[in-house]
Amino acid sequence: MTTQSLETSRSYSQQQKLKVFLLLGGLALACIASLVLALLTGSIKVTVGELWQLIQFQLGLSDQPANTLSATVVTELRLPRALSALVVGAELALAGCLMQVLLRNPLADPYVLGVSGGAAVGALLSIMAGLGSFWVSGSAFVGALTNLLLVFGLSHASGVWSPSRLLLTGVVTAAGWGAIISFMLSIGEDNQLRGMLFWLMGDLSRASLPGWHGLFLLMSLALSALLARPLNMMLRGELQAKALGVAVYPLQITLYLLASVLTASAVTQAGSVGFLGLVVPHILRLSIGSDHRLLLPATALAGACLLLLADTLARTLIAPQQLPVGVITAFIGVPVFLWVLQKSNRGTV
Amino acid sequence: MTQSIEPKTLLACQDLTVSIGGKTLCQNWQLKLRPGEIWGILGGNGAGKTTLLHTLAGLREADQGEVLLLDKPLQQLKNRQRAQQLGFLLQDDSTAFPATVLETALQGRHPHMGLFSWESAEDETIAMAALEQVGLSDYCQRNIDQLSGGERQRLKIATLMVQQPKVWLLDEPANHLDLHHQVSLLEQLIGSVKDQSGTLLMSLHDLNLAQRFCDKLILLFPTDENGKGPEMGDKGELLTEEKLQRLYQHPIRRLETDAGPVFIPA
User: Taking residues B153-173, what's their average pLDDT?
Assistant: First the structure.
């Protein structure tokens, strides 16, 4: 009995480590591949050779400068946008995954508590006032933070806090933002409507180098490594987690703040890209299970990769016209999700 | 088995007052659980068994007084420190998110593991041994939502065994279990509690299980205006027809058989 159970357990442990290594390694490679693809693709052709030359030149390995036009297109247009796509995709998928645990609902997404609604009202106000993209991003961020504080305050107001209270408060607040957005769209000028709609669907064409957003993503990933095992406990219920030694309330507050600020950071860069934050964590839960030590980094990598691929399609599919990337994420996400759901043998979720 | 220096009291209440929804469950209550003692809580529906257990486990705050775990007030302990010594079997569980049987049992190791460490081969051996004890070792890789109610209850008991606490608080451990598992699992649980000089307190609905397994009992009578409420003591003094009838508001017969006393509702 003992020897046999030992063998089973060893193979389980090895299985887990192999899974981590293969999955995260594979996803990281997929991210790099989609980055290369994004840099090469577009109306101005860049060859692999030119890209390689450019990389060598930038790294100081070669003093032979690349073709100037290609170099400009890659470093000033495609690279900032591609890096933004990676950061936004990772942030949204990670936020969705955290939100699902916080609300104990596998159908939660990063926008369910109204962060994107608040951001949208801020962004649309700036667009209507004819302000530039710096102001649009800035006011989107302010709108997202306003929502964060509003929902947090309201859900605590009666002194009794619970995730279901938070969910109800957030959903109703989001509906309120939705009404304001509809009102703004209906009084908006025709020449501003296109920009407003693109923002609402999610669009990376205004994105610049991710800068502090990227830094924040890395910090969030580090923090989520700390939270991963307590999150596993939370899946079996709050009381069970508490009985097993998790400080539940501080963890919930951390989750709320982290998921909200990640979402705020994502919508500030790209508008409300839909679907990614719901579908990516879900697909991964169905295919690799719910161990957050593996799930959180895998979700971030998969979200990054998916959004970059979607954005590359969005700007090339009917070039020179660009599509909002949110449309493409849904086009890719829906069939992939349904396919995974059909194949899944992990029971009903 | 027994260490040379054992605390005399594993879990204690000092002047504990617990109330819920305007109803007082106990007032200025003293309780001491000593190594090797097996306690039962009896009471009708809504008598407050779960509320009292949650208070003793630190999952809920007491109105007054304090609960001491190994002579330290629960409130001064971190959740993790508490969970290293005190394990709790909840009535409900959740299968909203997928997880395998082995993953779930391994969660019992959480309070004993460092922040970044992964389950070691030793942790897995402990989990496998517990699953073996509850008869679930063939189901390791099965998803928990494919288990029956009784199997899920056995998995919860296994998770608690994996936690290896000193103080075991169980809220209706016999729920969903068939007769065989009620007896064999409680026997195993109590065996390991006594081996480790631990103590166990469980709420039960079955008087015959209480008679069979408990040394001491708490009868959760409603608190009257004089502040007189729950009674506690040796099971011999408390398991009488008169007291049980008053507790359940229903006549109960105590029959003496070769296998010891048996209780049936009249």
Answer: 96
